[in-house]
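Input (structure):
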């Protein structure tokens, strides 16, 4: 039985899934993007169930997915196609490891009240959806993407493909909402240089998301 999914992408035939999986296993980023968009709903559902009641409000499902998607892109050479759902099961194991990493990190230190507030949904939205609404509202209202869940799926997948410096800038400035001075100091940049870098990062993220929408349920 398939996991519940907040999005329902256009079904792929078993032959299509095999072809995309084989292509992805060679390191083809477009094929990996297509698979992550296709399975995102199920992977999100899997992650939410892993978090359960015990870690709700302390671990964010989309944060776990973000780390997992980065690991999927970098570790795709370890994936071997072994049947229709093999990519989903392989990706689920990576998610499980990243979830356990976060659990161990929380258990190693006392709970940080600031972090716990940060993990809370903002106005009923996830942190990633809230960031998306601020940075790229057109991806929520444009006709080629009809659902916020689809836009977040595209954003998570595309963030995983960004160069490290771009991803860190977006993560810390717009998702974690850290002061620009602190981020600039940590990255060894002036504030103006960081603003320019962050602007380029958002442009690249938006361009990638525009391409990724064709793999999503409401893509034109």
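Output (sequence):
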């Amino acid at each position: 039985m398939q996991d519940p999914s907040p999005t329902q992408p256009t079904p792929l035939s078993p032959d299509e899934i095999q072809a995309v999986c084989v292509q992805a296993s060679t390191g083809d980023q477009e094929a990996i993007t297509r698979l992550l968009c296709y399975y995102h709903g199920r992977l999100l559902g899997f992650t939410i169930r892993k978090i359960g009641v015990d870690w709700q409000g302390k671990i964010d499902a989309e944060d776990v997915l973000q780390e997992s998607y980065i690991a999927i892109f970098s570790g795709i050479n370890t994936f071997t196609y072994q049947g229709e759902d093999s990519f989903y099961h392989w990706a689920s194991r990576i998610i499980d490891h990243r979830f356990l990493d976060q659990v161990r990190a929380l258990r190693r230190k006392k709970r940080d009240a600031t972090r716990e507030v940060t993990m809370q949904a903002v106005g009923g939205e996830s942190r990633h959806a809230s960031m998306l609404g601020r940075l790229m509202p057109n991806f929520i209202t444009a006709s080629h993407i009809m659902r916020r869940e689809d836009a977040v799926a595209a954003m998570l997948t595309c963030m995983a493909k960004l160069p490290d410096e771009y991803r860190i800038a977006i993560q810390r400035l717009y998702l974690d909402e850290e002061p620009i001075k602190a981020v600039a100091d940590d990255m060894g940049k002036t504030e103006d240089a960081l603003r320019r870098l962050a602007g380029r990062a958002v442009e690249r993220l938006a361009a990638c998301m525009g391409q990724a929408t064709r793999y999503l349920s409401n893509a034109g």
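Notes: DSSP finds eleven helices and no strands in the chain. The two ends are 29 Å apart (CA to CA).
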